[in-house]
Design brief:
By secondary structure, the chain is of the alpha/beta class. It is built from ten helices and eleven strands. Helix 2 packs across helix 10. The protein binds guanine (GUN).
Amino acid sequence: MTARLIDGLAMASQIRAGLAEHALDMKTRQGGIVPGLAVILVGDDPASQVYVRNKNRVCEEVGFRSYSHTLPSSTTEIDLLTLINGLNNNPQVNGILIQLPLPEHLNERTVINAIDPIKDVDGFHPVNVGRQTTGLMSLAPCTPLGCMMILNEDLPDLGGKKALVVGRSNIVGKPMALMLIQSSCTVTVAHSRTQNLREECLAADILVAAIGRPAFIKGDWIKEGAVVIDVGINRITDPETGKHKLCGDVEFDVARERAAAITPVPGGVGPMTIACLMQNTMQATMMQNGWGW
Ligand code: GUN
């Protein structure tokens, strides 16, 4: 079997088009409301700079306001908390995103906890994590949301499917497992201490790889006919050309011969993450304007 390639670029483009239409309608017919997203970058990590630039670009493309705050790596916690407090109280700002990782001297938990949960478009605040866990309406993390959208389109009924999530991060692995449970999958979470990862993979109808290690999941570990969602974005040097390229967490060429469907890297989950960030910003804007939560 040769897997169908899941076109995350096309799906994301459709979502952005829908949001642009919604934003225009909001602006013209619903009191001139324009969703606003503030993105904070502390330090000069090159990969983070690229992510932040893309977020700002897409924001403007869909007709949202984008507020970019680039701070030096020497920024103190107090200064960062003061900025967040200002954004919490600014009615033009509906969503606040702090690009991670932060420089080591800043406490990630303290900083995330300072964001007003109703503006927490990353879905990382404990209030949103708790609401998501108990099945209440919440702002949910963008990458697993994007993965769920892909899965829902690919498999109309997820109920009873065996899903394996490889990785247990707060950003992807844990919320991904929760969302799969909500969709009635039978979920296993594997991580660095998991034994017999190969066997766990071979049993999975759905495999979500979010470990951050290039081609860690071998292609012949994939169950025939499985759906493979590769969250990894790893920068490697191509041994043949010596050039840098992006590669996922799954050994793509071999996995492709066994899976029913697979997301490529790049062009799979990545574009969906940003589209979901825009969707969360729209949801936050609606919640702040009386649609409740
Ligand atoms: N760094 C890597 N992924 C993410 C993400 O989803 N959100 C934020 N804020 N930072 C990240």
